[in-house]
Amino acid sequence: MKKLLMATAATALMAGSAFADGHATEVKIGIILGFTGPIESLTPSMADGAELAMAEVTESGLLLDAAKVTPVRADSTCVDAGAATAAAERLVTSDGVSAIMGADCSGVTGAILSNVAVPNGVVMISPSATSPALSTAEDNDLFFRTAPSDARQGVVMTEVLMEEGINEVALTYTNNDYGKGLADSFQQAFEEAGGTVTISAAHEDGKADYSAEVGALASAGGERLVVAGYVDQGGSGIVRAALDSGAFDTFHFPDGMIGAQLEANFGDEIEGSTGQHPGTDSEGAAMFTDMVGDAFDATSPFTPESYDAAALIMLAMQAANSTDSADFKGEIMNVANAPGEQIFPGELAKGLQILKDGGEIDYVGATAVELIGAGESAGNYRQIVVEGGKITTAKFR
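The structure corresponding to this sequence follows.
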């Protein structure tokens, strides 16, 4: 191992054997998500998903020299690039993590990538950063993601709305990399399909009153309001103002708006509204849900993707026989794709053993993982509709 990990007091006592054969007895992996901020209701289950994979690997005793995998959490805030960068820097320099599961929102993910991951040579796998701009970011082959780009989501949104018979929409988006990237991708796809976007207007998060924004959206008109925002922030503010004013009564929600908090905020007030977020009805998705049980919400957006992101990191380490990002970054695409024996949730021990024995695996995981291009998900989506005040599955795409 070329980069030694920070040792705890306990492991320091075992210094004589801690790095036998170049391997650490403890591997630290950072989990940086917005535990505060506009998607804070989504991130607890995302972290739980990643930590479930880490616990599974630790219990197997098969990673390198029976290494214990220790998760280290940090708060990205989702929106404050400075705070996210500082938090990620602490993960690398103080906590000594070997890789980062995260970040979550696209803007802070890009900031961490350029300011921390690339300068320090640390692998990042994001379960939820979807900006198309990240596809071409300078990353030294260190950045991957298990959620598809919003270039794909814009097309899926268009398909859903067109099949619903919706040909004219108003569009509002949170004023950041995620919101603007998704809004542009959607508008291009929707108009190419013959639809009309009557207005595309940014909104700022953190406001107490969105009546002015909704007034402009209502004046432009549309059969449905597309809200590319955050469920714990301005997106819900827009929806509340639209409902209270009677401007719109049905909405279309991309991934940042979908979660239990949407039901809690609006219930049957948004009956008939539609949306989509990354998801699949694959065999692995069912296995993941069964494995999680009642421990946390296995179907919450980006939670299966978080399990898969953490799993890919550890499987790549095993394939490279190293916890050094410079060594294992080149194995991530290999373990994620064919050829090889398919590996599903709950089967990480099996995957580790095959790799230890010199075999090949095709990690399918909870989200039918397939990494393409510069290391991003090919993309599967769960289409939702609000029925009886509940988010229900309409189909998978």
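The chain has 15 helices and 16 strands.
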